[in-house]
User: Fold this.
Amino acid sequence: MKKLLNTLYVTSEGAWLRKDGANVVVEIEGAERGRAPLHLLGAIVCFGQVGLSPHLMHAASETGISITFLGWTGRFLARVEGPQSGNVLLRRAQHSRTADAPVTVARTIVAAKIANQRGVIRRAIRDHGDPEHILDGVERRLNRSARVALDSDDLDALRGIEGDAESAGEDKDERMAVGKLGIGGGWDDYLLYNTTCRRTTPTRQAHSGVRRLVRSSGRFGAWEGA
Assistant:
């Protein structure tokens, strides 16, 4: 069974990553701002102007850690990975199964994605509470979507179910951002602001950044500049 590791997000302008023993060290303006053991990482994601030492890139490629470079808007730029290995016969069988019975594969994937969303919501309710019962309603909605997905025999119907679940997940992300990080006023005020404001203001940019941060919750974390 494959062990799922953590993802390190680095978003600080001018950050420099280097290898120190069996750790990756994040430096900003020459000062160490954080470190993480390499054996706990499965990926490193760099936003904007972030640099890495050759020694760290070599160690990452040897240990199976992928390094991804993104622009400030999240646009994909490049990915660095070491040698890959796999079972060719298994891959051929997977592709053949997908071509012969696409609905069976698709319904399993959609149901699993919805189950993952539901797990995040349950953890948020357990850790932070849900006094307004908003997340509880989203969790019930995802439960219904997962059951319908497992019974569906139509690809277009599965696409609709997946889209509905994604919509519920976006509502969940914004609710968690407001509740956990205390941005803006109440939930109703935030929804009103988010649907009526058409200008790109610093506050709106902060909301957008929080949504991206919440979507990456559960990962190893991100170091921000001062």
